[in-house]
Amino acid sequence: MSHNQINAYDADSHVAEIYDQYETKLDDVDFIRELIGNFGPMKILEPLCGTGRILIPLALDSHIIHGMDQSAAMLSLARQKAQQLSLGTQQRINFSTVDVLCDEWPGGFDLVILGCNCFYELATPDEQEKCVTQAFQSLNPNGNLFIDNDHMEGDLAEPWRNIGVVEPSLGGRCLDGTIVESTRETIWFDVPYRLVRFRRRTKVTLPDGKAIEQEYIQQKHPVSKDEVQNWLEKNGFMIEGTYGNYADVPYTSSSPRAIFWARKK
After folding, report:
1. pLDDT above 90 as % of the chain
2. DSSP E strand boundaries for the chain
3. Is 55 inside a domain boundary?
4. 214: domain CATH number?
5. In terms of domains, do 260 and 163 share one?
6. Considering the domain boundaries, does residue 237 fall inside one?
7. pTM higher than 0.85, yes or no?
8. CB atoms within 10 A of CB 44
9. Burial bucket for residue 177 (CB in 10 Å: 0-12, 13-18, 19+)
10. Band of the pLDDT at 1, cuts 50, 70, 90?
11. Number of domains in the chain
């Protein structure tokens, strides 16, 4: 069972709307398109898919997509986006409410996407590696796995060790005037294991003045490039490319990201 049992995005549907305002980039989607190349329509699975930012453009490219997420609010917004597309595109899209650590993943896919820092939603290295193991089981022979994260090498970085400091987090104003405010406060960390716990607070103020508040504890484990590489090799993947950004530049220790394109042996 996951250490992070409370999902902030389900405090109120407006939180997912604010998330969607922030997450608008498409350079990672374009990079996935480049890696896929000229292969015909593929069956693509994205665990922790959020509001469908990655999957919906791929559905428009004629791929068959399946998105999974634990958050009902995030998936509701993803479905709303899908309903605005042509009927033919809608028929290639499926979303399901799934706890990726506790529930079974479907199989028969040509590509699994673990993108957009999704490992940072997970609390421990064991949870993160379990997603790699599950991805292997969900893929067809010779299927591919795309993993994309920030990375942290060595000990927990100094900026993650600010005990007691309250920092603003996801927030903004929704289309209906609802205001979302959230903060995080570091309450514990383990330097050599690169673990950190936050006290997260979310406040949603509706147009009528009614406020919805939520407080919970979240743990994170910033992954290193070597960790992910080890999980891939240990779980039966052959790494075909390791990149430092979305411009096809090979990874170096100074790269901002650690992106893997791997194939199931």
Report:
1. 95
2. 43-47, 64-69, 93-97, 109-114, 139-150, 166-168, 172-173, 179-190, 195-205, 211-220, 237-243, 257-264
3. yes
4. 2.20.25
5. no
6. yes
7. yes
8. 26
9. exposed
10. very low
11. 2
